[in-house]
Design goal:
Layout lengths: L1 H41 L8 H22 L8 H5 L2 H33 L3 E2 L4 E2 L5 H23 L11 H6 L1
Antiparallel strand pairs: 1-2
Helix pairs in contact: 1-2, 2-5, 4-5
Length: 177
């Protein structure tokens, strides 16, 4: 069982790294699109119409992929003051409840995002000429990854009650990045 968890952990680490790189690439691409928009507006006096919808789409991708990586690496938003002063058992219980809530949130985001994708797929984004449902795909992928990474942390917390195997940085994790 431990070898299966280790293999899944490695696979999810690769998936997390890919998501992080895609998020970074999206941020760079969005910055380039906005720069082109500003250049077009103020230098060429001809604002490109495609830059704003592309920027918004890229922003959705890099925010939600980055949020999923944040869940896996335990960088997500949290209020730790109560947890910090709680006894160890209570703090772990609070961590478990938090991970279950994050999993539920990710599943709901993916499910309702899929509903939006299906419901708007037949519409077309006018400037880009692509299906409108593409605007909501980041919700599906990001929500799915958020749920997956939260479950990974929850399983790691249950399998290794003394440590958080995902959030803890080992020499092997640092070498892999």
């Amino acid at each position: 069982m431990t070898s299966i968890l280790t293999s899944l952990h490695r696979l999810l680490r690769v998936l997390s790294t890919v998501a992080l790189w895609l998020s970074a690439a999206g941020l760079v691409a969005m910055t380039a699109a906005v720069a082109w928009q500003v250049f077009g507006r103020y230098v060429l006096n001809d604002t490109p119409s495609w830059t704003e919808p592309i920027s918004l789409l890229l922003m959705s991708w890099f925010i939600l992929l980055g949020a999923a990586v944040g869940v896996r690496e335990n960088f997500h938003l949290g209020l730790d003051i109560v947890r910090f002063f709680a006894p160890d058992r209570m703090a772990r219980f609070m961590d478990g409840i938090s991970l279950v809530a994050i999993t539920g949130f990710g599943i709901a985001m993916a499910w309702f995002g899929l509903t939006l994708v299906v419901g708007t797929w037949s519409a077309t984004i006018p400037v880009l000429g692509i299906p409108g449902g593409i605007d909501y795909l980041p919700l599906v992928v990001g929500g799915g990854l958020i749920a997956l990474f939260a479950v990974e942390r929850l399983v790691g917390m249950i399998a290794h009650p003394r440590e958080d195997i995902v959030a803890a940085k080992t020499a092997a994790d640092l070498e892999a990045h």
